[in-house]
Amino acid sequence: MKQNGEFSDSCLQRCPFGVLLLDPAGKIQQINPALEAMLNTPAEQLLGHTRETLPFATHRGVLEGNNIVHLAGPGVTQERWLQCEVMESSSGSSSRFFVDITELVRLQQENSRLEAELDELAITDDLTGLANQRALKRALDTQVTRSRRYHNPLSLAIIELLDESSPSLVPDDEVVLATSRYLRDRLRWVDFIARWDQNHFLIILPETSAREGERMIDKIRGNFPDIELPESASIHTLSLRFGLAEWQKGDDDRRLMDRAAEDLNRDPLIGMAASAS
Q: Are residues 91 and 162 in the same domain?
């Protein structure tokens, strides 16, 4: 029996993962060197303590549940995360086993940070390749600032793609893609087009008055029946609705967008219809 005890103690001392032994009352009976290193605390400071009497409250996590233990705060010189597994004996005592997963958690945090940065940098719509909402807001803010400073004309157009045969139906991706190409091909190099949502596009028209913007819209609307649509759209009757607003003194980008949206809602035309050829 003595040899078995010595063997068990030797295994505990050499075990590469942390081990904590508790008696039925929840008192710490034994801690192996691996766990001492993880906690950066000598075993002598912890032996005989229960969860309530531990010298540092931040260490209480090692006696709680069967979960990930986060060690940070007073008494912890290095922030760590430990994965804990618990084994209960029939006598009421328990063994707790710990694996240091600090590096894994930090890698996950770094990946999350990089993903968030990539999302922040993303400025194109996945489907159409046009600018997305983030890029549109940045570009519009720049143009509004320029008009405010130099009093240059500036207009903003909102275009809504509709299916007259089923007004409540949102156009599918193939139709949206074909429409985005149609709109892009009819703009000047200086204009800025973005996809706002499934069936709305916004176009920034620098150096453009409302009257000039209306002429551009008339051309886009008038040629829309000639758009090349996929065969899947043959059962639909598609049209474009427009809203237009010219920058006025006192407008910020949000106010300019609101006025363009108000004009869109007043548009009596559903546009000229287009269908697949």
A: no
Supply 161's token pair: 């793609």
Residue 266 backbone phi and psi in degrees, to 5: -90, -10
d(CA 144, CA 148): 6
Query: In which domain, by residue range, is 13 found?
Result: 2-105
Whether 77 and 144 map to the same domain: the answer is no
* Separation in Å, CA 168 to CA 12, 153, 165: 69, 36, 9
Q: Two tokens at 17?
A: 């993962």
Q: Which residues of 205-217 are buried (b: 16+ CB within 10 A; e: fewer)?
A: bbebebeebbebb
The answer to whether position 271 is within a domain reads no
Mean pLDDT of 241-255: 95
Residue 196 resides in a domain: yes
Q: pTM of the predicted model, to two decimals?
A: 0.60
**Location of structure tokens 């290095």:** 78
pLDDT in tens, 131-171: 999 999 999 999 999 999 999 999 999 999 988 776 667 77
Q: How many domains does the chain have?
A: 2
